[in-house]
Amino acid sequence: VSVLYCERGQMSFRLHICADVGGEKRNVEVTFDRKPETVSKIADEGEIIFRNECALKQLDPRNFSVDFIVFYEDATRRWKPLENVNQLTEYMQLYLFQSGAPQETVREIPAPSSQANAFGASSRVVHRPGLTTIDVDKVAAVFKELDINNTETIELGEMIHGFQAAGIDFNEETIARLFEKSDANSDGMITWEEFQVFSELFPNTVETLYWRLRSVDQQPTSAASQLKRHRQKEHQLKRELNEAERERKVLESRVRQEQAIARELDPRRRFLEEEEQDLINKEFALQFHRDMVVQAETQFSETAVRFDHASQRQGSPRRARYL
Questions:
Q1: Nearest 5°: phi and psi at 175?
Q2: How confident is the model at residue 303 (pLDDT cuts 50, 70, 90)?
């Protein structure tokens, strides 16, 4: 069971959340420290709670994944898709549809049989040791180098790209954990203040990033400047690709919501032509972006090879700082 952290004087918010666990409907009263700010927050907490339920029944918790959420509207006595938190009222009954369960239906919801508490935002702590420091000018230089789009913030994609460009042998999952450690308010961006905390937590990482990225950017060759331009272009294309992916998932989820509700209200309704056509259009657009990313990666690899050959002929200065 999760642990609830409420600030003094803060009002809690309760919801009834039901899901299918191993063929059995489980309904839980969940207490949030405040009204949830997003629908995804509810989905995340639901996954935590019902994955614990799966574990208690000796089922694989990883198989429980929320696809979309519906709520029961008392006025119309019908289930409707939960699209934003403005639809929420306290003690509202929700149902979590799971991924990979296309024939799942909402029937015979039991009364809440147990209680659980959701993680509050106040429970997140950022450790600031302040024992090992790094020159602030170096921190600023690394921050500027990672901020490819010049937005004065660093996104996860930019951090992954920077680590890869510096040759640091971390996989994307590890970099994402580092990013989450520094993104104190969990808004998906690292500000200058948050990056200073990152430099206190990981001073050796920032020092390595400084020297490696600096050595690439200061090479007096056209290949180095081309390499940086390709990095920027690749990041932009990947960002567009991710946005297209998110749009596709939203559309797919919307189609599944409509189909699930249609099965409850009108079993004869089978097709959603407009949504399906929109989904097909997005699929073609997504493939177009993928082709552009592949082309950019090919150009990036060719430029990197030319850069390495030029460095070998002229005598690479990369190792000079270690001597």
A1: -65, -40
A2: confident
